[in-house]
């Protein structure tokens, strides 16, 4: 492989890892804002709780693509964060429904 191909492959797996971590960070900010009301967004209501169910899989896919190219810590961190962000809102909805009813 030439140096250009190596550099391009290195840049692509780093980019996918960064995108994965950025998606997780963005979802965490949205969820923290929901509970702490740092920036009040009354029109969004429950959207921040549902958003990780649709957005986190894109972060998981980016992390898996980056890990397939080369096993790196950035992609692993993004993968773990996105999986946790995918599972937590579901668990929150189930627990709230159990305790407070439908």
Describe the structure in your own words.
The chain is mostly helical and 102 residues long. The protein has helices spanning 3-36, 47-69, 73-100. The N and C termini lie far apart (59 Å). Helix 1 (3-36) packs antiparallel against helix 2 (47-69) and helix 1 (3-36) packs parallel to helix 3 (73-100). It has one domain. Helices cover 83% and strands 0% of the residues.
- Structurally, how many domains make up the residues? 1
Strand content: under 5%
SS class: mainly alpha
Largest sheet: none
Helicity range of the residues?
over 70%
| Global mean pLDDT | 87
Distance between the termini: 59 Å
The ordered string of helix (H) and strand (E) elements is HHH
- What sort of overall outline do the alpha carbons produce when their principal axes are compared? elongated
Give the radius of gyration: 17 Å
Number of helices: 3
> In total, how many beta strands?
0
Low-confidence stretches: none
């Amino acid at each position: 492989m030439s140096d250009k191909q190596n550099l391009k492959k290195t840049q692509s797996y780093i980019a996918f890892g960064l995108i994965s971590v950025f998606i997780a960070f963005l979802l965490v900010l949205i969820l923290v804002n929901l509970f702490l009301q740092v920036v009040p967004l009354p029109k969004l209501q429950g959207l921040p709780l549902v958003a990780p169910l649709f957005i986190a899989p894109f972060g998981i896919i980016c992390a898996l693509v980056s890990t397939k190219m080369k096993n790196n810590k950035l992609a692993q961190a993004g993968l773990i964060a996105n999986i946790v962000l995918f599972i937590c809102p579901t668990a929150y909805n189930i627990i709230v429904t159990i305790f407070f009813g439908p």
